[in-house]
Design a protein that fits this description.
Elements (H helix, E strand, L loop, with lengths): L9 H24 L6 H17 L1 H26 L4 H18 L4 H15 L1 H9 L3 H17 L16 H25 L3 H12 L1 H15 L5 H23 L4 H23 L2 H7 L11 H38 L3 H13 L5 H17 L1 H8 L3 H28 L1 H8 L2
Length: 428
């Protein structure tokens, strides 16, 4: 037992008591609204007990925990006699509330407050959670477990270093790409389940910000399965705009001078893609009325993950070799090849090299442009392979080609007249 607990300053103790009572009232109000016997007063007292016990010492924390167990036992005994049912959820909430009180008494603020908010949210969302879990399929549960295994179990075991004598292959880098495509696929599946076809647009934005190549590969398969193949032109444009914006921001953050090479081409391509989105969205209301229910396959495909990971490794190794052989020109070649898999990684790598003086800002900007255009170009073979409607494929192809042609023209004009530099100077 702490011998000088009587001399504790008043201010900190009063703050801890106020926080503990607030936590107890928050949780207790939800239990009261759910018509449970243990309500605001019970939960406030239990949390306050934990906070006060922590002020005295470990012995009182243990003794008070025993008292909470006895309280829970008495509450459940009464519930059994009255309704022939156990208060399992309320009992668990009381135990967690006591622990939150102890943490508050020990001086923690974020952990107990965040814990109280999360627990109250879980308690209040009973119907929504039951409805969600009741509709889960076995493939969805397996996919969630697989995603957790890939991201939180296997990845920490991967060596984050080059494992060969030539410094060509980093297992952690390759595994991040696998996590990216698995996470994007699972997110798109969840959004489709929650928001039907509208979830495709949210998935396109988020996926384009993470990995546009992985996202378009996932989207083409998903829309084909769901009977929404006509959406692929809009989705491709959304993904590319998100990717262009992200790469421009990456280049600007690390090497602001690279904007003189990236600003005008990326803005021009984004503008043309936005025009196609505006035009195509006018036709989708009619398709929505005629569309049926979504028929979705498994959220995560091991075959797709394996093939994408292998492709990433090949591009990574090839890019490093080209850079070593041809210097700055090799970096541009790496930008193009790397953009086929991950333009974000390639843009960030070029920006880091420019920041350390290994390449010039203009080369870094040119690498970002090539990487972005290559990332958009990879849409061609992916969609040609997965979309069966030839008329739709032709329409998509000339629309994407117009975006890329705009980028080429913008690069030529910018190189000739230095328009990006003038535009940046005008806004300074």
């Amino acid at each position: 037992m702490t011998p000088d607990f009587l001399n504790t300053p008043v201010g900190p103790v009063a703050t801890k008591m106020a926080i503990s009572i607030g936590i107890g009232m928050l949780i207790g109000m939800e239990r009261k609204w759910s018509h449970k016997e243990a309500g605001i007063r019970t939960f406030s007292i239990v949390v306050l007990l934990g906070a006060l016990a922590a002020q005295v010492g470990i012995e009182l924390i243990v003794v008070s925990m025993v008292g909470v167990f006895l309280l829970i036992a008495a509450m459940n005994l009464r519930s059994m006699r009255k309704d022939d049912a156990l208060e399992v959820t309320t009992s668990a909430a009381l135990l967690v509330s006591y622990v939150l009180g102890v943490l508050t008494g020990l001086g923690h603020i974020f952990t107990p407050v965040a814990g109280a908010i999360v627990m109250t949210m879980l308690l209040a969302m009973k119907e929504e959670l039951n409805r969600f879990t009741g509709g889960l399929q076995l493939t969805e549960i397996r996919s969630a477990i697989l995603l957790g295994l890939i991201g939180f179990v296997i990845y920490p075991l991967m060596p984050n270093r080059y494992v060969d004598h030539w410094n060509l292959f980093n297992p952690a880098d390759a595994w991040i790409s696998i996590i990216a495509i698995a996470g994007i696929g699972f997110l798109n599946y969840v959004l489709l389940r929650l928001y039907s076809s509208k979830g495709l647009y949210l998935g396109a934005v988020f996926g384009g910000l993470v990995n546009s190549t992985a996202t378009i590969a996932e989207m083409t398969t998903r829309v084909q399965q769901a009977g929404r193949a006509s959406r692929i032109t809009v989705l491709s444009s959304i993904i590319n705009i998100a990717m262009f914006t992200r790469n421009m921001m990456i280049a600007a953050i690390f090497v602001p001078l690279s904007l003189t090479a990236t600003l005008l081409p990326l803005l021009a391509m984004s503008a043309v893609a936005a025009l196609w989105i505006w035009r195509d969205l006018a036709h989708e209301s009619r398709e929505d009325k005629a569309a049926g229910t979504l028929d979705l396959a498994s959220p995560i495909s091991l075959k797709k993950l394996a093939s994408f990971g292998l492709l990433f490794i090949l591009i990574q190794v090839g890019g490093i070799l080209l850079t070593r052989l041809f210097g700055g020109n090799g970096m541009l070649a790496t930008g193009f090849l790397g953009g086929l898999v991950s333009s974000a990684s390639t843009t960030a790598a070029a920006a880091m090299l420019a920041m350390h003086g290994q390449i010039s800002p203009s080369v870094a900007g040119s690498t970002a442009i090539l990487s972005s255009m290559a990332s958009a170009m990879i849409d061609f073979p992916i969609i040609w392979r997965n979309i069966k409607d030839k008329r739709l494929v032709r329409t998509f192809s000339w629309k994407l080609a117009s975006v890329l042609l705009t980028g080429v023209l913008a690069v030529g004009l910018d190189y000739t007249f230095g328009l990006s530099g003038q535009l940046i100077h005008a806004f300074k």
